[in-house]
Amino acid sequence: MKKPLLLKLIISFCLIAAELSAQYPILPERDRARVVDEILEDRLTNLLPQLMRREGIDMWVIISREYNEDPVMRTMLPSTWLSARRRTIMVFYDAGGDKPLEKIAIARYDVGVLLKGEWDINVQPNQWLALANAIEQRNPKKIALNFSKDYGHADGLTYTEQKELMAHLSEKQKAKVVAADRLAVAWLETRSAKEEAIYPIICRISHEIIQEAFSEKVIHPGVTTTDDVVWWMRQKVTDLGLETWFHPTVDIQRFDPASFDHLRTFSKRPAQQVIMPGDLLHCDFGITYLRLNTDQQQHAYVLRPGETEIPDFLKKAFAQGNRLQDILTSRFKSGTTGNQMLLASLEQAKSEGITGSIYSHPIGVHGHAAGPTIGMWDQQKGVAGPGDYPLFPNTAYSIELNVAVEIPEWKKTIRIMLEEDGYYTQEGFKYLDGRQTEIFTIPRKLPNVK
Questions:
Q1: DSSP secondary structure string, 226-285?
Q2: pLDDT tens digits along 281-304
Q3: Residues 6 or more apart from 86 whose CB is under 8 A from it?
């Protein structure tokens, strides 16, 4: 490659990078690491002791091998640890009273700045016996391990690790083993004050990407396909130095005979379609940034030649979707289970003449996160297990649902499918970066142009 061409490419890349960073408030990689570690230190020092006492656990043992990490352990690794190392063992012990939480690693080195390595291979060559000795010395009331029937997030202890651990524990300590699933879910779902402060801007970045994707900057009716928009979104996220936690989707509802049912929405989408005037577009999109995730679904309408407004029948249909959101979020109260919120909301929606489906879920360090499940698209009568888990404050949710609305003008039923991220505290529920209340138009209306 000739030097002038290389120089042009470098300059072009720098200009693009500068433009992107100016438009989106995204930190450089080193600053991200600093923020991640500050949040982790705060959570381990201040939040974890509260949660262990709330759940009545005085010792929590988490074990993983490299590249087969427990989902909980992944959230406890420092920013410079991209995986566990060999076998990583974390032990958290609450001695009670006003003593600080003891945080140790049965390893030959520290895990970050908070978990001190407590394995001298010259004294005890066997890592499992070193762990057993650490447990014996502290003699906890309970030894909580990550196994769970209801939550994959809390079921990270593998068969081999469990068998090895039990083989090295004394009978006295074996009798103390309990499931850590409630504690694991509490750790995963509860957001700290620092995380609450940064979450809205993460949702804003995700919203802005959707708004740009659903605009004339990306969509040329009659030319652009749904797949083109999907891959534009993926590329945009990559260019910003971020990640998506699932492959985005873009789909179309229009004046045609095709139905739009749940199965088509979730697993049997048609092949890419060319976007045309008169189409109602829908996307499902989420990003990962600073170890937190977004999950959003929004709509846009492609104006026909001569149209300047979205048809009233689509505006009214969209309003039903917003109303179902309000019905559900008004049910957010501490101690209420996911199933209780689901059934009460559907009953109220029915009484108001709204045909709705609710499949909302916690969000945070996972996209489909741990916490109370509020329906699934194919389980509208309740979800055994995760649906019976109660609501706790300082937790985040994706309010995901749809309403089916008969559209005589199109001679069919359409679905308004919405998803927005929100946060629950003792004061109530709030959206992290607002919610869509009007369908976008493609192209956008220009001021002073009629």
A1: HHHHHHHHHHHHHHTT-B-SS--EEEEE-SSS----HHHHHT-PPSP-B--TT-EEEEEE
A2: 999 999 999 999 999 999 999 999
A3: 65, 66
Alpha-carbon distance of 371 to 30, in angstroms, equals 31
**Sign of the C-alpha dihedral computed for residues 319, 198, 332 and 360 taken in this order:** positive
Supply the pTM of this predicted model.
0.89
Compute φ and ψ for 432, nearest 5 degrees: -70, -35
- Tokens representing 148? 């769970």
- In order of their start, the domains of the chain are 29-188 (3.40.350.10), 191-442 (3.90.230.10)
DSSP-assigned letter for residue 346 = H
Per-residue model confidence as pLDDT tens digits over 372-402: 999 999 999 999 999 999 999 999 999 999 9
C-alpha distance across the termini of the chain, in Å: 50
- Bridge partners of residue 379, in order along the sequence: 376
**Gyration radius of the chain's alpha carbons:** 25
